[in-house]
Design goal:
- There is one protein chain.
- The chain is mainly alpha-helical.
- It folds into two domains: 124 residues, no CATH class; 93 residues.
- α1 packs across α4.
- Pfam families: CLAMP.
- Keywords: Coiled coil.
- It comes from Cavia porcellus.
- This is Chromosome 8 open reading frame 74.
Length: 297
């Protein structure tokens, strides 16, 4: 163990994070609190010695010796089978160190060693005297920090923000309705063209085997073809008109809701400016101004 200097233990006691400074003064390697718990516990025991001795008013030279005394006691009692043997070792060490301490400080050190080490001897032996198998599971979690808030000058009242969100939702719904109407028109036009082609193909005359098909249609077939084509177009036009009327009603309903929202805009919570004061408040403000001028005169 590296010998501590009086100035070193003084800095350890005065620093808020003196435990790490004590480790460096003892020339220990950085400790892993998880994989080497014994080293961390031993460092805690020595750091508590510094706090005890300095708190009791020991001279800084004696504080350094208390740390050395505790470290030697923990080493020499390792593997002791009984508390009696540990007490004997403690008594012999106190005799060896009695010329380095005053009678009062030696008695305080004896009480401290008895109340900490001897009282918890079995625990010290179990923790510091036996190797432990550590089963450690490490899980790396990603912490998502909150987004950077906007400047307060760009903020708005909650009611105003909710109003804007409702208006934006109605506008988005209206735009979606318009897209659906365009897609429906295209689908109806494609269906109309497919039906017309299917009808025209079914009216084409087919020749028998070994003969050529006729080059034209008879009057009755042509009239029937025109009648079928007109019927298909009228039916498709009716479907388009029905869809457009229904969609127009939906869009008008959305616009009506927007209009109602525009009539119920939340009022600003900011106090009114002097120019917006009512007649009563304006009179009171004028009287207060006149009284202030009179007092100044």
């Amino acid at each position: 163990m590296a010998l501590l200097t009086p100035q070193g233990v003084k800095e350890v006691f005065q620093l808020q994070l003196g435990r790490d400074l004590l480790r460096r003064l003892l020339r220990w390697e950085p400790l892993d609190e998880w994989s080497d718990p014994r080293g961390s516990i031993l460092l805690d025991a020595l750091y508590d010695c510094v706090l005890f001795a300095a708190g009791k008013g020991f001279p800084w030279v004696e504080v350094a010796r208390v740390v050395k005394f505790t470290d030697e006691l923990l080493v020499e009692t390792k593997g002791c089978s009984s508390i009696t043997e540990a007490v004997t070792i403690l008594g012999n060490k106190l005799v060896d160190y009695q010329r380095h301490f005053t009678a009062r400080d030696l008695l305080a050190l004896c009480d401290y060693s008895h109340n900490t080490f001897i009282r918890h001897f079995r625990l010290y032996q179990y923790v510091l005297g036996q190797a432990r198998t550590v089963h450690l599971t490490v899980t790396h979690l990603e912490v998502c920090t909150p987004p950077q808030p906007l400047p307060l000058a760009e903020g708005m009242h909650r009611d105003m923000w909710n109003h804007q969100q409702q208006v934006a939702a109605l506008e988005a719904t209206e735009e979606q309705k318009r897209r659906e109407l365009r897609l429906l028109r295209e689908a109806l036009r494609e269906e109309e063209g497919r039906l017309l082609e299917q009808t025209f193909a079914s009216m084409q005359p087919q020749g028998t085997e070994g003969t050529q098909p006729h080059q034209g249609l008879c009057r009755e077939a042509l009239e029937h073809l025109v009648h079928e084509a007109v019927g298909i177009q009228i039916k498709s036009l009716g479907q388009r008109l029905q869809c457009e009327v229904q969609m127009a009603f939906n869009i008008l309903d959305l616009r009506l809701q927007k209009q109602l929202l525009s009539l119920n805009v939340p009022l600003s919570p900011l106090p009114p400016s002097p120019g917006q004061l009512g007649p009563e408040n304006a009179i009171k403000s004028h009287r207060a101004h006149r009284q202030k001028k009179a007092r100044a005169k």
